[in-house]
UniProtKB/TrEMBL annotation:
Its main location: cytoplasm. It is found in: Cytoplasm. Belongs to the class-I aminoacyl-tRNA synthetase family. This is Cysteine--tRNA ligase. A motif ('KMSKS' region) lies at residues 274-278. Binds 1 zinc ion per subunit.
């Protein structure tokens, strides 16, 4: 029996998973900053680490997964102002959209989903610890406002400092990318707390009014729920620097051991470019579901290794959907079949840093073996293999017989596309009848009938349905 090995970004090596508490797995996942509709680039992270969680659960671990919501941020404030809406309404609107998207793709709900603005007290305590230790400093602002910065030079000069180790950057080359730098001692320093600006939301602290810095919130929330030392910290590759590098620095400087493993999923790209709003190549979840069913989109987003680039194309998406349907068609031949036992090859694949491509290959190998057994008249063996397929597919989150996907085919993208095509034919028929072009009208009717589509003429115009 193999054991789970995880590629740890911090050490750039695969390490055997050894939890802080035997039998328990604690995971923190950097969640959404809801400012607009979620796209498949956002959801890849959710799906990738949902598979990790499902595998840990399948192995008998008690899993605690914390996925935060950054509900205060420069971009949120800008978007809300541009649309003349309250910031809290704006972020809540799109937080619901993210939740809907996660649910649609079968991502298990997190154990808890804290919002940054609900943890100001913990952030103040964290800043006080850092100031007392000499690794942070306050900068008074105007009208009772105030900022607090992390002192990178002070921390970097301390024995045991590992600043830059996660991302591989040299300290002198690091740029935080922060627009507000009033009172900073060095460009390398980063904001723990941002001084209040006129018209912006703020909270009182001993150092003045302001709002959370991006990095501080995650240290405060993760350690509040999971403790000063926990197992796995997850997030997108683009978060390595500055976000995760700064999380490590402030947490270690405050005396917390923090995360023991760091896992980063790669991007979804299109035409070689990272999926992002600014590039204008965003593919929303709603748009994707015009092409494939939710379960097929999940299959696609989880199909590549989480550390590999997922290059989007409609051809790749539809090919993945066809792959899922081969699994679905096989399992569907055994209504009510119970989940069986995964294969040794599947277990080895999952324990090899969650190698989903290898795991999928094993599922398809099992499907082929099952169809072969069925063709040879060995239904008992085929049913046993169908049970194995079910349990393996469940680990990856797309068990065809799961209640989650029971109605997945209703009003799918394929149905919508068919409706558009049939209605175009019906309009052609209506025009032909109005012009007394009976030959064309009959040809349209016959063509649709040959495709299994029945036309019914009503007082409100023609309707169509699939023939029984």
């Amino acid at each position: 029996m193999s054991t789970l090995r995880i590629f740890d970004t911090a050490t750039r090596s695969q390490r055997e998973f050894e939890p802080v508490r035997p039998g328990h797995a604690s995971i923190y996942l950097c969640g959404a900053t809801p400012q607009s509709q979620p796209h498949i680039g956002h959801l890849r992270s959710g799906v990738a680490f949902d598979i990790l969680r499902r595998w840990l659960l399948a192995q008998g671990y008690d899993v605690a997964l914390v996925r935060n919501v950054t509900d205060i941020d420069d971009k949120i404030l800008t978007k809300a102002a541009e649309n003349n809406r309250p910031w809290w309404e704006w972020v809540s609107t799109y937080e619901r959209e993210f939740t809907k998207a996660y649910n649609t793709l079968g991502v298990l709900p997190p154990s808890v989903e804290p919002r940054a603005t609900g943890f100001v007290t913990q952030m103040v305590e964290y800043m006080q610890r850092l100031i007392d230790a000499g690794f942070a400093y306050a900068v008074p602002g105007e009208d009772g406002a105030g900022s607090v910065y992390f002192d990178v030079a002070a921390w970097n000069a301390t024995e045991g400092s590992d600043y830059g180790a996660l991302s591989g950057n040299r300290v002198e080359d690091m740029e935080q990318g922060e627009s507000d730098a009033v009172g900073k001692r060095s460009p390398q320093d980063f904001a723990l707390w941002k001084a209040a600006k006129p018209g912006e939301p703020s909270w009182p602290t001993p150092w003045g009014k302001g709002r959370p810095g991006w990095h501080l919130e995650c240290s405060a929330m993760s350690t509040y729920y999971l403790g000063g030392e926990f197992d796995i910290h997850c997030g997108g590759l683009d978060l390595q620097f500055p976000h995760h590098e700064n999380e490590i620095a402030q947490s270690h400087a405050a005396g917390d051991k923090f995360a023991n493993y760091w896992m980063h999923n790669h991007w979804v790209t299109m035409a070689g470019e990272k999926m992002s709003k600014s590039l204008g190549n965003v593919l929303s979840i709603a748009n994707m579901l015009e092409i494939v069913r939710p379960v097929e989109l999940r299959y696609y987003l989880g199909s590549a290794h989480y550390r590999s680039v997922l290059e989007y194309s409609e051809a790749a998406l539809t090919e993945a959907a066809a792959g899922y349907r081969r699994i679905e068609d096989f399992v569907g031949k055994f209504e009510g079949v119970e989940k069986g036992q995964w294969t040794a090859a599947f277990e080895d694949a999952m324990n090899d840093d969650i190698a989903v491509p290898k795991a999928l290959a094993e599922i398809h190998t099992t499907v082929r073996a099952g169809n072969k057994a069925l063709g040879e008249g060995n239904r008992e063996e085929a049913e046993r293999l169908a049970g194995a397929v079910r349990v393996m597919a469940a680990v990856l989150g797309f068990d065809p017989l799961d209640e989650q996907w029971k109605d997945s085919g209703e009003e799918s993208g394929a149905d919508a596309a068919l409706d558009v095509l049939v209605r175009a034919e019906l309009e052609r028929r209506t025009t032909a009848r109005a012009e007394k072009d009976w030959a064309t009208a009959d040809a349209v009717r016959d063509r649709l009938a040959a495709a299994g589509i029945t036309i019914t003429d009503t007082a409100d115009g023609p309707t169509w349905s699939l023939a029984d």
